[in-house]
Design brief:
- The chain is α+β, with helices and mostly antiparallel strands and 217 residues long.
- The protein has 2 domains: 11-88, Helix Hairpins (Orthogonal Bundle); 95-215, Sandwich (Immunoglobulin-like), CATH 2.60.40.420.
- 35% of the residues lie in helices and 27% in strands.
- It has 3 helices and 10 strands.
- It has helices at residues 11-42, 58-88, 203-215, and strands spanning 95-102, 105-110, 123-126, 128-132, 137-143, 148-152, 157-161, 167-171, 177-183, 195-201.
- The strands form 2 sheets. A 5-stranded mixed sheet has the order 3-2-1-5-8. The protein has a 5-stranded mixed sheet with strand order 4-10-9-6-7.
- The longest helix has 32 residues, at 11-42.
- The chain is elongated.
- The two termini are 44 Å apart.
Amino acid sequence: MLLPPVASSIGPAIDRLFYLILAVTGFFFILVEGALVWFVIHYRQRPGRTAAYVHGNTVAEIIWTAIPAVILIWLTFASQRVWATIHGHIPANAAEVEILAEQFAWNIRYPGPDGRFETADDVTTINQLHLALNHPTVIWLKSKDVIHSFFVPAFRIKQDAVPGRGGQIWVKPTRPGQYEIACAELCGLGHYRMRGFITVEPWDQLQQWLKETKANE
């Protein structure tokens, strides 16, 4: 199974975790289904053969309970490290952008030179998010109406926007280009058209775009 090319710094860690979980679950799926087929064939009804009734096996039950429990605990700690990187360790030099989700658009706001939101020098766009290449950006998510989910497959990030609650996620783009923003939560009849686009470009080009966008407001 091939995933889209990675375009963020956290992407490789998420891919490794994904393939690890896929390998573990795939191995046990094949093992269990293989055993099922073997039991069906080996213990099928035959002339002159009577059924044998077995009332459990304590040792076997402990083994097939303990092994999945250990694996799940291991995967939990592996996942927690990646989760903490995405949500708990925001780089000190990160830029900021605010996204207000609504049916059916992404309202994007950049702070102006004063570095604060909701002031006269803010830059606002709809469905067009520009990010600096190789520079971390914190995305503050809010929802105006229902639950939405900010999903960028190429960045391997997905974060819900819940009414009445703020959310955050940070990303460091590593490949220039344009990437799609999708809403991954069914949010109404127009859900299918709630799309946006991310343009990843060098820092100086981003600053020039912000100036031009502000001048054209």
